[in-house]
Amino acid sequence: EKGTYPHFMLKEIDEQPIVMRKIIQEYQDDNGQLKLDQDIRTAMKDADRIYIIAAGTSYHAGLVGKEFIEKLANIPVEVHVASEFSYNMPLLSEKPLFVFISQSGETADSRAVLVKIKELGHPALTLTNVPGSTLSREANYTMHLHAGPEIAVASTKAYTAQIAVLAILAVDTARVKGLELDFDPLQELAIVANAMEVLTDQKEELEQLARDYFGTTRNAFFIGRSTDYHVAQEAALKLKEISYIQAEGFAGGELKHGTIALIEEGTPVIALTTQENVNYSIRGNVQEVVARGANAMVVSMKGLEQDEDAFVIPHVHELLTPLASVIPMQLLAYYAALHRDCDVDKPRNLAKSVTVE
Ligand code: M6R
């Protein structure tokens, strides 16, 4: 039940710090070490390449997961939109492991891939919020997201739970493989949980920003580089699905290759910057759009901020910034939809779980 909340989406946004703490607890043993099924450990260790299969927001979490697994566990990763996979089936490696990411565990597009790869005899691990769901039952292994029921059509806490669990999976694999790491996911996720609390307390500020930037606009652009690019894509999906504002998330460097032609007087452009190595370049992109009349908003991370930034998120580990930067994006989308009198929890034409291909 949504209790005192006007919408499930707002309640689920607020639950994210609790979900982080629950994940820390569930994936930790009595000695404070990571706790994972032995079978999953073996499957990850044996894989020479990982194929992540997902749709929508879960696909966006997969893009972040690829970075974790490649950077920390040193295994190559491909991320595929489930509905596209079978048209252009990639050349598979010798020992592939398929990782399905699905909040509901019922997405038909992902299930079609699972059926296909099982026929080929490949192993599958499902990350889902619903153990016992189709994708969980039919895969060899399951990792539970522990996000609690997600009712709003717009996925929020499942996205952050997916990213947290992917970080744990990547670090655990690195340890099993004996790789040296100076990244403790449980400690860093605890810092994230605190940052999330700070962020969810800033609703008034974000409501005002939503009014200023999305009040009457017909379209909006989100830009980022590197990790921030993945969050820009998720931010655009969130905004479009509940507020019906046409939104696009793209890589800052791609602006000059086409999209900048769409910038007019007053077009909202939201730029994310949480990574030191892209801070300078993305700010260059902001100047380019401002010079063409855009209404630009910079959301930066503490340590990289400048005076004119509209919103600054607390500092978290550079690998985990999506867990913090997505929260203002979720709240901006929520308030934009609210101000436009949209049905926040049940946007038109959409279902919570998409059980047709
Ligand atoms: O249940 P799943 O995670 O498999 O669902 C995938 C997408 O349908 C889902 O993430 C969708 O994009 C959401 N409405 C996004 O908020």
Automatic annotation (TrEMBL):
Location(s), subcellular: Cytoplasm
Key words, A-Z: Aminotransferase, Cytoplasm, Glutamine amidotransferase, Repeat, Transferase
Catalytic activity: D-fructose 6-phosphate + L-glutamine = D-glucosamine 6-phosphate + L-glutamate
Active site: 352 (for fru-6p isomerization activity)
EC number(s) stated in the UniProt entry for this protein: 2.6.1.16
Residue span(s) of domain SIS: 40-179, 209-347
GO-annotated molecular function: transaminase activity
Top-rank taxon, per record: Bacteria
UniProt subunit comment: Homodimer.
Job description of the protein: Catalyzes the first step in hexosamine metabolism, converting fructose-6P into glucosamine-6P using glutamine as a nitrogen source.
Protein name, as recorded: Glutamine--fructose-6-phosphate aminotransferase [isomerizing]
Native source organism of the sequence: Oceanobacillus kimchii
Name of encoding gene: glmS
Portion held of the full protein: 244 to 600 of 600
